[in-house]
Write a structure and sequence with these properties.
With about 230 residues, the protein is mainly α. It contains 7 helices and 4 strands.
């Protein structure tokens, strides 16, 4: 899986998961500072489309996995940009549902790669970090899907309703890290249950990840010493 490409016009190698991680971090960094600027929604949607494309690239080593990823990502991207022109609520539902499915799919493929690898490399580490962010992105879309199906599942204090996906993006990662500031609250039973499940997933993943990386490092060191 971890074939490398290069940053355009440079000889700096970037692994498959590294590119995905960089784009997700850009969304974290640029989002808050671009709020209030004209066209911010389009910029964020362009970045989101790039994240989807980089997700496809991250799992593109095997043809079947790539084809399945493309079939899931295509409706996500088409519905996302069609909504700008048609303003049909159904398109937002399609985009959100397929988006959740896509990030969950990339998440599963990346985790399977981590558990197949025997050596600790830069690509393994970036893949492991990417998985953590993919968990947050997947739950962002699940929460948004829940809010679309059942409006009022989440409330933003002191405002009455959530305004955009960025707020649920923030809520997902606050929940994942179990910080829980309390400025966004899950009101319905499904929303509360899903929030608790995400928090547990985050803690379990970190525990398993540390154990896995330590095991891989011990195995790798043993091989080197035996040579």
């Amino acid at each position: 899986m971890p074939k490398k490409t290069y940053i355009p016009f440079t000889q700096i190698p970037v692994g498959r998961s590294s590119l995905l991680l960089i784009l997700i971090l850009l969304k974290f960094i640029l989002g808050p500072f671009l709020q209030g600027f004209i066209g911010i929604d389009i910029i964020m949607d362009v970045l989101l489309s790039l994240i989807l494309i980089s997700g496809i690239y991250a799992i593109s080593e095997k043809k079947l996995v790539l084809v399945i990823g493309l079939l899931i990502a295509l409706p996500t991207i088409v519905a996302q940009w069609s909504f700008y022109f048609l303003k049909i609520p159904y398109l937002e539902l399609v985009h959100t549902a397929f988006g959740a499915f896509f990030f969950a799919y990339v998440l599963i493929i990346t985790i399977s790669y981590l558990f197949k690898e025997k050596n600790v490399t830069v690509e393994v580490i970036t893949s492991a970090v990417s998985v953590y962010f993919l968990i947050g992105l997947t739950w962002t879309y699940i929460f948004l899907l829940l809010e679309i199906i059942h409006p009022g599942s989440f409330v933003l204090v002191p405002e009455a309703q959530l305004k955009n996906i960025e707020q649920l993006f923030y809520y997902s990662f606050v929940t994942l890290t179990t910080i829980g500031y309390g400025d966004i609250t899950a009101l319905t039973a499904p929303a509360g249950s899903f929030s608790a499940l995400e928090a547990m997933m985050g803690q379990i993943y970190l525990a398993v990840l540390v154990g896995r990386l330590i095991g891989m490092y011990i195995f790798q060191s043993g091989k080197m010493e035996s040579k």
